[in-house]
Amino acid sequence: MALRDNQGRPLVAVTGMGVMTSLGQGKDDTWAALTAGRSGIRRISRFPTQGLRTTIAGTIDTVNAEPFCAPMLSEQLAMRAAEEAVGQSGLSVSDFPGALFMAVPPVEMEWPQREALAEASEEKGDVTYRDLLKAAETGQFRSWHDLFIFGTVADRVADRFGTKGSPISLSTACSSGATAIQLGVEAIRRGETDAALCIGTDGSVNPESLIRFSLLSALSTQNDVPEGASKPFSKNRDGFVMGEGGAALVLENADAAKARGATILGYVLGCGEKGDGFHRTRSSPDGMPAIMAIREALSDAGLAPDDIDYINAHGTSTPENDKMEAMSCTAVFGERMARLPISSNKSMIGHTLTAAGAVEAVMSLLTLAQGRIPPTINYKVPDPTIPLDVVPNEARDANVRYVLSNSFGFGGQNTCLVFGAEPKGA
Asked: Which residues are catalytic?
């Protein structure tokens, strides 16, 4: 009998997972560190930080990328996460039988490349359009053409794994990783493919990114104790800490997965998405877009609020976002929010931006499989206006059947996913 959800659509199973974070290479290392409450936040050593307001991040310093820039590091993180995920799935690592949906950070030339162009220009000053044309004529910078095109990372991943059709590159701010998974789910439900490789990746800790986020007053400046800077839902939170990471999920039509004898790691049962045009960076003060995204995800999964056993929070550690998320969850789950576990992986790995939704999807699925909820570390000064069970400081064993994972991004990009160990009623 065909496996269908409550709306008669194909069930979407997860058969492979891979992840790279500042806590470790691979899901086993990352999960062990995460549930032990260890932090991957450290002082930045990759480049000089004199004069920067924020000098800490969850960098991944064990991966070589040449030339070193956000696109190249993002590509390497994606490749490694995908190798782990596809390898676990048992599908071909060179002839993947499905589509690629990939969340990648916005791409632009970084300062080292701009400085090289300035050096090559005649005026030795600001780089003008005329200078760019002259540099292009020399052929010296030809490799940069591909390097700094938005779709290049996905193209290279598609070539490496032999995915089918045109790869999809997307960037929906901090919800990007979750959106990539949503697109894979929808493609399988529509019958367009039986498999999808969904990836979120981000290797963009660089001086320019730190400066831009600092100008928005978005970053923590608590540099003295790096591992203690990210403190979601605490009263003394002062901003997020940038992190780097990559995560990949192999999604399959559950019927096809079972027919080939694959091990099913869990199911993506519901997706909810709601745009918010309130502000370029701030969330709507009433939380309504986030509330609607949560409700849509639950409805899509055929679940009621009481069915959710754990919430993997967006939990950035910014004063406004954490308050908005708490308010939005309370609007959906009511008085139960005081005892419904909700914790933030970002307290340990930082905010991996474009990759965050995918990284947290992997952690949500591991929570289902292991029956262990990762903590929110650095929770020493509770915020009385956010009376939540944040699983403070230590992991907790629990019977978890269904997880809600929230991703709320700049520009009002809100995407929520519901994962389950089994479909409801199974």
From this structure: 174, 314, 351
